[in-house]
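Marked as duplicate of an earlier ticket. Keeping the data here for the record.
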Amino acid sequence: MNRFLPSFLLSILLHSLVVNSQTMPKELNIPKPPSQAKTNVALLAAHITDGLPNDKEKAYHIFHWIAHNIKWDVKIFNQVTEYKIRTAKKTLTDKVGYSNDYAKLFREMCLSVDIPVQEIVGYEKNELHTEGARYYEPNHVWNTVYIDNQWQLLDCFRAAGDIDMNLGKGHKVKESLNNTKPLYSTKFKFKFNYNPEEFMIDPEKFRLTRLSADPVWQLTDTAMPIQIFERTEKDIIAFNEKYSKPLQNSKMLEAISKLDHNELIIESADRTYAFNPNYNGMKVSKHLANTEKGIENLKMAFSRADAASILNNAKREVSDAKDLLGEKKRQIKEECAELQRVNTERGADLIKFYKNFTAMNTKYMASLRNKMNASKSKASAARNEVKKISRNANYVNKNNLNKVQELPSNASSKSVELKQLDSIAGREARIIAIEEDLIRFKLDIEAYEALQKEIFSSMKSYMKVSDSALVKEARTRSGRTENKSDSTLANTSNMQYYKGLVLDSLQNEYFDIYDSMLSLQAQQKKQYTQKLELIKANAQSFSALKKVGCKKINTSDRYTEYGEKYFKNSQEYSDANIAAVNYINSQQPILKFFTNKYKNENDFFKVVAKNEDGRKKYIKSMMKKKEELGIRHAEQQLALVDEAIKKLTKQHDKVKKDLE
């Protein structure tokens, strides 16, 4: 029976984000093993690796087979039971296991085909253990395997699949979050979902989510302190970039890998405790290993005094183990209380975050409604302007000029002529300046429209990511999901980045352009109106020149020229108004789209806020289970201590009798 029983219990439930890896991403077609190999570790490993050319292929085939054939043992969560201690053979028989069972089976199968391998106990990030929460003891187990002169990290347990909330046939979660009451369940079922990326993971990527209890198995030249791991992913990445690089082979690792089980515990216990003083499990195991060593030494005692001395030393080891286990029971309650506090604070922060988001969206919706109402008025005015322009397009025409009668020549006609010619020249200069402005307005409008399309295209891409995080967040935190692999912290982080930073920035830019477009169109309208008035005024001046019988210019030709100008510019003005109407109409669905989007987001936020109390109950329930399991685990270890005392006493009595 194994003496070391690390608490991996909630790691089955609280699956964290998967990291990228150096992997062999392929499915294998491994033949079914013969009946005699199904529960025989060595025969099964030999069958799986038969004919394979190297240790990497062999290790991957073993990894692949375990991940496809062993289920997570979720029974312990569905009803709090004793933590099962399985041999590798028992895991093959049961076809279920905890993370340590997966690691143990992988280790024994690899050793049977002469591949060096280790089981690694460590800490894993999950829904409860996020930044702000300390680790009191390991909650996960994985392996390192020696391939091509390097130790490589892999996790059969995480490669196998995931768990769902078992809500029962009549209580499947509906697509709409607002139709039914929140559904919560702490009953779980396992689902195979093979992930080959858990094979041969880069050490620095691996410790984004998992960190070995013994720092030497981080496989880097500088060990990351657990205090860094307990912070954010950003802090972990910064440490990786600044302080360390992978180191997957060393004389120390080579020496450690050659130790037997008890030697490994004794060698690493103090180092593991120094790395995380909250975790005393390895020291308990060290005391028990020394106790077993004492039992073996009793067999070789050369006198009753020697036997008594060995017995006393072993009893001290047992007493120290008992004291540490008593401390562990206290720590279990302390850890659960701390996790409860951190999660409660995180929930309060999220509610505050959601309220800010809702207020922001409500403000946006009010602004959009104003834009829609204003745009409808602008479109209506532009359409009326088009009708008006159409009626007046022929205002300046030859017939009007023909009706003008020349006045009798008199002294004042010369001064009238000079005055009209000066006015015509001044107006023509202003018309040229307006035409330059209109060309610039047209180019600006075209550039803005193109930029606006690009921005909207980018927004749609980011909306998908933001909406995905938003939906996952709402579903996960409300309990309306069967899949518990989503990290609420990661979802919230994505929401804050994509929605709170990227999308809002793009959206503000989009509507700045929208407002600029409307402003340009208004300026364009003003300039066209002025231009038409100037053209009309010049036509009237040519009419006045005809009256005074001006001979300096051909008033009839110039009047006709300005009549054509008036008609042409009326058409251009009409086209500009039609373009403005079309633009406004094209923006109406987009304005409605954004309005509906913000409304839907607020609906999600309301679900999250409404169900936060339910999530608190869910977390409280899981904390209760964790505490119960932790205490039972400690009691199982105390039972091992009692068993060691009996063995010690029995061996001492036998030796004492033999020495009489």
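See parent ticket for discussion. The radius of gyration is 40 Å.
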